[in-house]
Specification:
Layout lengths: L10 H30 L10 H23 L3 H5 L2 E5 L8 H15 L4 H4 L10 H6 L1 E5 H4 L3 H7 L1
Antiparallel strand pairs: 1-2
Length: 156
């Protein structure tokens, strides 16, 4: 790995973070579904009449939670467990809420053409997916975030 790309989180690390987030979200969803089926009295959770509503509201809730975590804590639990932070590419600081929302919407766009916008992380110099490029964000390693801005700027 060359020194210019050393501080950026690569494709596999980010994929691992995403998988951890999916596992956490799925676990929370299954717990909510089981509780919901207990409240409604259905023996099979998937047969409950409100299950589509629960699925939709859970997906929306996880989307909003992910955007809030990216803006407030610089990443989701999966990113933090994998040692990654999401930052603004220009200022090298936390994302603004609007920027985080745009990044999330752009992620949906990046995933559409067979995930090519996401796979771009593997060959882009700054390890940016299409969603990162459109939102003006970078995903860096946490230990790199502690370095002075001048040292990081000298690498790019």
């Amino acid at each position: 790995m060359n020194s210019a790309a050393a501080c950026y989180a690569g494709f596999w690390r980010r994929l691992g973070a995403w998988l951890l987030d999916i596992i956490l979200a799925w676990s929370a969803f299954v717990c909510a579904l089981l509780m919901w089926s207990g409240v409604t009295g259905h023996a099979e959770p998937w047969d409950a009449p409100a299950t589509p509503t629960l699925v939709g509201s859970s997906a929306l809730g996880f989307f909003i939670l992910g955007r809030c975590l990216d803006a407030w804590l610089q990443g989701t639990p999966g990113k933090h467990l994998m040692g990654c932070l999401v930052i603004d590419a220009a200022s090298r600081r936390k994302l603004r809420c609007r920027q985080s929302l745009w990044r999330g919407l752009a992620l949906l766009l990046a995933a559409l053409p067979a995930g090519l916008g996401i796979f771009r992380i593997g060959w882009n110099r700054y390890r940016q997916g299409l969603h990162d490029k459109l939102a003006g964000t970078l995903v860096i390693m946490e230990d790199e975030a502690r370095k002075p801005l001048a040292e990081l700027a000298a690498r790019t």
